[in-house]
Amino acid sequence: MKVHLALGYTDMRKGMDGLAMLVQETLKKDPFCGHLFAFRGKRAQIVKILFWDGMGCPCSPSGSIGAGSCGRG
Fold it and tell me: CA 33, 35, 22, 26 torsion: positive or negative?
């Protein structure tokens, strides 16, 4: 498994679909390949991680770092 870190900051209002679109358009990668894609907010207080587990569940911490949830954002 590879981990891809987005440089700069990402608009944290984006949900999982928006982040998947960023992966496809900007990184030219498949968001459903099983790799981790990490995005951070402007003040680096929020990190979202896009991960496809093969069963339809993109998982991502939401809110502050460490508070986790799993589901469509």
Answer: negative
Question: Could you give the residue ranges of the DSSP H alpha helices within the chain?
Answer: 16-22
HSE, side-chain direction, 13 A CA sphere, residue 14:
23
What pTM was computed for the model?
0.70
Structure tokens at 68: 């986790």
Instruction: Please check whether residue 35 is in contact with residue 70, taking contact to mean a CB–CB distance below 8 angstroms.
Output: no
Q: ∠ CA 43-45-48 to the nearest 5 degrees?
A: 110
pLDDT one-digit tens code per residue, 23-36? 999 889 998 888 99
Count of beta carbons in the 10 Å neighbourhood of residue 22:
18
